[in-house]
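re: the backbone from monday

yeah here it is again, tokenized this time
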């Protein structure tokens, strides 16, 4: 998650591994879904001062963007892509005890 304290994580094993990776990075760019903002987690992975850029979706609250920018973090907000269209056909498999819908992704 992402809070005013920085990146937060609940799993201590993940924190150990991720801290090593962060230590090797020139710039820390975080891709985070807007639902992960201000989540309560037990452990701080790194402070906001280490985060260079946050990329998130347009569901992020304006207040969250402001506090990140005030902390010196570059924020990039993107519109989520629409899911791909699908063609669906109903399959009547009543003789087999099946009722299903089969969908194929369109190229």
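seq for it, each position gets an aa:
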């Amino acid at each position: 998650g992402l809070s005013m304290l920085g990146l937060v994580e609940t799993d201590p094993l993940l924190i150990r591994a991720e801290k090593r990776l962060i230590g090797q990075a020139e710039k820390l760019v975080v891709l985070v879904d807007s639902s992960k903002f201000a989540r309560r987690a037990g452990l701080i992975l790194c402070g906001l001062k280490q985060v260079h850029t946050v990329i998130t979706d347009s569901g992020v609250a304006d207040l969250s963007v402001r506090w990140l920018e005030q902390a010196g973090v570059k924020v990039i907000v993107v519109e989520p892509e629409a899911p791909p269209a699908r063609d669906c056909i109903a399959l009547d498999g009543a003789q087999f005890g099946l009722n299903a819908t089969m969908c194929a992704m369109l190229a």
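Confidence is low (pLDDT under 50) at residues 94-107. Residues 66 and 95 are 60 Å apart (CA to CA).
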